[in-house]
């Protein structure tokens, strides 16, 4: 993939005819300014959840700017520790100097998988399967009851672990008996039509196959505010593919998504996602990693669902008179929500609602980071990272968890046994 | 108007946090907008108020020295009363975690470079190491922790003429971390007493102790359980143990950040972190909103009063290119010599013009334009973005942030509830 390879054409001999614009081959990303911006304060290393529990992990500063510089030398390979980065992207948020750390990690991981990982290895095959969860889910949810039965079988789990390296510690997420899209079609699509209030829902894989109740809540809430909701054809946002260095897969999915969403933008729709990793991917990783027609516009017009309502509607006002059945929630802000500046909005929004007690369970990472915590060799790290969050959830008054991210939600449930809701579901209860 | 508060503070460092707390005190609903994690992670965690005037250090009583500062200095705007008010509020935030409030006089804190820094407030764990105490001192560094060279620091201190014997010793930390490990890893190991590390550390140091009265370590003796670790080491070593503030990533800076965030949460300040403020909206010459770039989309945050606390040249609240120096958010006037070669001096630690670049406040901390007129009636500035102070040379960065932040926040709050 030309735009993720590191160029070897900038050795010292090329210095004489140095021209800033032509150093990098067509379409290749120039990460040099980013690397040069790093003044090695190492604050990123102190916010990395993996480095915190895994002493062998060199941390984001090495994975990003330092490794990028090392790679300028022709015979230097990418260190295999890049596969231990969970792509939580917290380092982006920590850097005071604007170094595009996660972009550097994504490109390094992509290059590592392309050039250094054996395609027949168990790790590659397993990662490819995990990265393409959407495909797996499509097959599995065609016969949800059978799949749930099979995947819930401990023998199958053991085989998964031994054969594929997918941890047997976790219960496979259950598939809904009716997907969100099936529900949407059954319902006959949108019930509200509007010329000026239009949103296109990017539900992602998880709300479609596993938690359609989140998607349904989204539709009810937005329709209550008078929005016309459409549900475009879509593929995986690419998040698990970036995290596994499968950039070709991600680009294929992105090209479908960007093309479908671009058409809708032209008709006056904004893009809404209920999963914060999906919105993160469309907003930041797409334009950072791919060059597709319309990708910048899609990025600029994508929002997280609550964020969108907060900007365009008087949510505070609507919620002032709302009340719900008394419930205390232990809220966890996903790392990817944090990086979009959304980490406090749910607490801020619901704090005043009658009947709701909302407690933030701290700023630690949940540790699952999408597919990361599903890997047999990463499971322990994942649970160690999550320890802080589990403890805080235990201490919190509520015994219902709340988060925007589907995999954080799995981890919260796995670590505490709590039922986990999405903020949209509470909004649905309060307003619809 | 969906996202609306009474006061919006832009900038999540020390000045912005103090401004938000002080505005919230008046009963206003306050939002604090910051782009990235707090820059306090880069800071020593010390609070200097005024350590040097005209290059002469150390100043013993910072309050008495304020009137020797230039007229345009931010301290001259808020006055000694403003500095005291800021420190009072700071003392409320940090409670018993800091020392120094008992006196007006500067304490002399030992730094990791082996210099002595005149300081008004300092963390409890730093207090036993003050250079004014005549106790023979052993500084301990660790192989592999390149941020602190105990031998060099001890030599520097001796050369500076401290009134006690000081030696440096470098030992192996009982747990071998990978190369380039950060202070936070050492701290975590001590916090959790991994592999009996506290006792083993004490054993490693006992061999070097040689009748010193006190032992200084770089600030890494634990995070949540630092008092416990220090107490344990003091027991085993039969000597006073203190911490020496470090460069970034600074544990003492992070702990101060935590104290401030706790205080902000208690004050019900709304925190919006992760996206940069990029512009503003006005109505009839008044500021009505600051716009924040949320991944390509400018979203307005409405309020009645605003505080600009985006930092100086390093914090990016002031920006420069080869031609000019600007305040990038509101375009406030930043006076600077037209000739770029007059911005700096040849000497590295000289009296640089660039160090004093910043916005020019009126007598209510409102940025003014080139004619001296107020930029916006409802915009005040605090901290590093203010010009007129060379905070690095004067050793006044924290004091300027605390006092102007407190003042600007209080005034913003007063205006909204008026």
Whole-number mean pLDDT of chain A: 90
Point out poorly predicted stretches of chain A: 1-26
* Name of the CATH architecture of the largest domain in chain A: 3-Layer(aba) Sandwich
C-alpha geometry of chain A: globular
Distance between the termini of chain A: 47 Å
**Count of strand segments of chain A:** 8
For the secondary structure, the number of strands of chain B is 18
| Residue fraction in strands of chain B | 15-25%
Q: What is the CATH homologous superfamily assignment of the largest domain in chain B? A: FAD/NAD(P)-binding domain
CATH topology of the largest domain in chain B: FAD/NAD(P)-binding domain
The CATH topology of the largest domain in chain A turns out to be Rossmann fold
Helix content of chain B: 25-40%
Task: State the low-pLDDT regions of chain B, or none.
Answer: none
Specify the structural class of chain A: alpha/beta
- For the largest sheet of chain A, list the strands in their spatial order: 2-1-3-4
| Structural domains of chain A: how many | 4
GO molecular function (chain A): 4 iron, 4 sulfur cluster binding; metal ion binding; oxidoreductase activity
Domain 4Fe-4S ferredoxin-type (chain A): 74-107
Keywords (chain A): 4Fe-4S, Iron, Iron-sulfur, Metal-binding, Repeat
Protein name (chain A): sn-glycerol-3-phosphate dehydrogenase subunit C
């Amino acid at each position: 993939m030309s735009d993720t390879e590191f160029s070897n054409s900038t050795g010292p001999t090329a210095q004489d005819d140095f021209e800033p614009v032509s150093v990098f081959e067509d379409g290749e990303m120039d990460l040099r300014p980013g690397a040069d911006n790093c003044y090695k304060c190492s604050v990123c290393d102190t916010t990395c959840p993996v480095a915190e529990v895994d002493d062998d992990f060199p941390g984001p500063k090495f994975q990003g700017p330092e490794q990028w510089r090392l790679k300028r030398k022709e015979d230097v390979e990418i260190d295999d520790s890049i596969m231990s980065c969970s792509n939580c992207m917290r380092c982006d948020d920590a850097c005071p100097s604007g170094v595009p750390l996660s972009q550097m990690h994504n490109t390094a991981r992509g290059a590592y998988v392309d050039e250094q990982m054996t395609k027949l290895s168990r790790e590659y095959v397993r990662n490819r399967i995990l990265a393409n969860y959407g495909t797996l889910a499509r097959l599995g949810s065609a016969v949800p009851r059978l799949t749930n039965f099979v995947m819930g079988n401990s023998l199958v789990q053991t085989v998964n672990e031994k054969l594929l390296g997918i941890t047997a510690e976790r219960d496979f997420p259950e598939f809904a008996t009716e997907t969100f899209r099936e529900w949407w079609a059954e319902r006959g699509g949108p019930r509200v039509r509007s010329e000026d209030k239009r949103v296109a829902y990017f539900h992602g894989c998880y709300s479609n196959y596993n938690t359609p109740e989140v998607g349904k809540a989204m539709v009810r809430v937005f329709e209550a505010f008078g929005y016309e909701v459409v549900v475009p054809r879509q593929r995986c946002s690419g998040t698990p593919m970036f995290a596994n260095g499968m950039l070709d897969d991600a680009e294929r999915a992105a090209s479908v998504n960007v093309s479908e969403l671009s058409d809708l933008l032209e008709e006056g729709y904004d893009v809404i996602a209920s999963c914060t990793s999906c919105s993160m991917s469309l907003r930041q990783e797409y334009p950072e990693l791919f060059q597709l027609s319309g990708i910048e516009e899609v990025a600029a017009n994508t929002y997280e669902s609550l964020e969108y309502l907060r900007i365009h509607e008087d949510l505070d006002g609507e919620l002032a008179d709302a009340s719900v059945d008394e419930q205390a929630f232990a809220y966890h802000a996903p790392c990817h929500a944090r990086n979009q500046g959304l980490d406090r909005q749910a607490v801020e929004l619901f704090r005043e609602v009658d009947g709701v007690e909302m407690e933030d369970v701290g700023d630690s990472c949940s540790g699952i980071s999408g597919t990361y915590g599903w890997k047999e060799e990463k499971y322990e790290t994942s649970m160690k990272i999550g320890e802080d969050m589990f403890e805080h959830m235990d201490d919190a008054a509520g015994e219902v968890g709340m988060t925007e991210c589907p995999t954080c939600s799995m981890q919260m449930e796995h670590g505490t046994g709590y039922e986990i809701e999405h903020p949209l579901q509470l909004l649905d209860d309060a307003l619809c | 108007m969906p996202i609306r508060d009474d006061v919006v503070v832009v900038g999540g460092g020390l000045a912005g946090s103090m401004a938000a707390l002080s505005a919230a005190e008046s009963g206003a609903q306050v939002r604090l907008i910051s782009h990235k994690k707090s820059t306090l992670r880069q800071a020593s965690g010390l609070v200097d108020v005024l350590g040097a005037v005209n290059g002469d250090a150390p100043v013993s009583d910072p309050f008495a020295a304020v009137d020797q500062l230039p007229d345009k200095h931010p301290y001259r705007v808020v006055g000694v009363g403003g500095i005291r008010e800021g420190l009072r509020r700071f003392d409320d935030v940090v409670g018993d975690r800091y020392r120094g409030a008992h006196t007006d006089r500067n304490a002399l804190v030992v730094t990791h470079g082996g210099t002595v820094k005149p300081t008004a407030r300092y963390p409890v764990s730093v207090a036993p190491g003050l250079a004014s105490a005549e106790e023979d001192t052993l500084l301990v560094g660790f192989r592999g922790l390149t941020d602190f060279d105990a031998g060099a620091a001890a030599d520097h201190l001796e050369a500076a003429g401290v009134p006690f014997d000081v030696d440096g010793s470098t030992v192996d930390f009982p747990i071998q971390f990978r190369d380039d490990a950060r202070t936070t890893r050492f701290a975590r190991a001590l916090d959790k007493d991994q592999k009996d590390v506290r006792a083993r550390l004490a054993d490693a140091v006992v061999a070097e102790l040689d009748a010193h009265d006190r032992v200084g370590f770089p600030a890494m003796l634990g995070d949540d359980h630092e008092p416990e670790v220090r107490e344990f080491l003091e027991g085993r070593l039969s000597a006073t143990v203190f911490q020496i503030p470090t460069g970034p990533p600074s544990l003492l800076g992070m702990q101060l950040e935590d104290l401030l965030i706790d205080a902000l949460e208690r004050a019900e300040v709304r925190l919006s972190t992760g996206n940069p403020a990029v512009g503003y909206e006005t109505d009839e010459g008044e500021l009505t909103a600051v716009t924040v770039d949320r991944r390509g989309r400018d979203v307005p945050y409405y309020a009645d009063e605003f505080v600009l606390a985006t930092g100086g040249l390093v914090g990016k609240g002031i920006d420069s290119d080869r031609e000019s120096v600007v305040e990038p958010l509101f375009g406030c006037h930043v006076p600077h010599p037209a000739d770029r070669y007059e911005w700096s001096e040849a000497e590295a630690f000289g009296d640089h013009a660039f160090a004093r670049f910043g916005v020019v406040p009126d007598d209510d901390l409102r940025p003014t334009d080139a004619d001296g007129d107020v930029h916006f009636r409802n915009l005040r500035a605090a901290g590093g973005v203010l010009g007129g102070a060379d905070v690095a040379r004067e050793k006044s960065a924290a004091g300027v942030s605390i006092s102007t932040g407190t003042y600007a926040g209080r005034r913003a709050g007063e205006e909204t509830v008026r």
